[in-house]
Amino acid sequence: MDHETEEKLRENFRQKTWSEIKSNDSWALFKIMGEIVHGFESMAKIGPCVSIFGSARTQENNPYYSQGIEIAKLLTQNGFGVITGGGPGIMEAANKGAKLGGGKSVGLSINLPFEASSNAYVDKDYNISFDYFFTRKLMFIKYAQGFVVLPGGLGTLDELFEALTLIQTKKIAKFPIVLVGKDYWAGLLDWMKKSMLEDQKNINLEDFSLFHLVDTPKQAVEIIVNFYKEFNLQENF
User: What pLDDT digit, counting tens, does each position of 178-198 carry?
Assistant: First the structure.
């Protein structure tokens, strides 16, 4: 265990006074409210958008980086703006594609010690920074009319299952969720079917209809465009 981790653990387990607890909680509450208000005000008139999730570690020579560009470009050419986490990798690719397509390019970045500022393709007016993951995820969900999920890590899975949970529990409408990369997602989906569905019965078979699995940018965009040929665009909350 490194020294920094040890110090954080000691601080977390240190017995705090009532005054410290009250002061820290009150200050955190104001920071959270401030982030939510700023996010709402910044994105209130953004129009129909699709949130694109994927790894910050994906390099430019990775085929999924190229797919991220193409998906975002096609979406903007069909009237959608693009929302990403504003960082490198797939997020950068999607913001770049939105720029190439002449559409809105939104970046909801998170303040992390190991990640630089927003990528160069985020619109200046829609470059929003957050300290809290949960306030940032609220913006991803609230202002999106669909979700495209390219290969990613823990953060991508977190964002994917947040959207799936809210749709499954009917907290938001059944907006299209598209997973890109059949080979990448195969292991996860096999585990969900075998362990979650068949063995433990923790989900229903119908839950697999909450998302689509594709391999190409064209297929991903067609699912979202065709969905909105039947339904009018609407706010999630």
Answer: 999 999 999 999 999 999 999
* Rounded-to-integer distance, Cα 116 and Cα 173, Å: 34
Domain that residue 179 falls in: 14-230
pLDDT digits 0-9 by tens, 189-234? 999 999 999 999 999 999 999 999 999 999 999 999 999 987 665 5
**Taking the alpha carbons of 111, 117, 119, 122 in that order, is the dihedral positive or negative?**
positive
Residue 3 CB neighbours (<10 A): 7
Confidence (pLDDT) at 25 = 74
220 neighbors 188 (Cβ within 8 angstroms): no
pLDDT at 28: 87
Report yes or no on 2 lying in a domain: no
Q: HEC string of the chain?
A: CCHHHHHHHHHHHCCCCHHHHHHHHHHHHHHHHHHHHHHHHHHCCCCCEEEEECCCCCCCCCHHHHHHHHHHHHHHHCCCEEEECCCCCHHHHHHHHHHHCCCCEEEEEECCCCCCCCCCCCCHHHEEEECCHHHHHHHHHHCCCCEEECCCCHHHHHHHHHHHHHHHCCCCCCCCEEEECHHHHHHHHHHHHHHHHHHCCCCCHHHHHHCEEECCHHHHHHHHHHHHHHCCCCCCC
Tokens of 215: 């391999």
CATH number at residue 224: 3.40.50.450
Residue 7 in domain: no
pTM, rounded to two decimals? 0.87
Average pLDDT in the 109-122 region?
A: 82
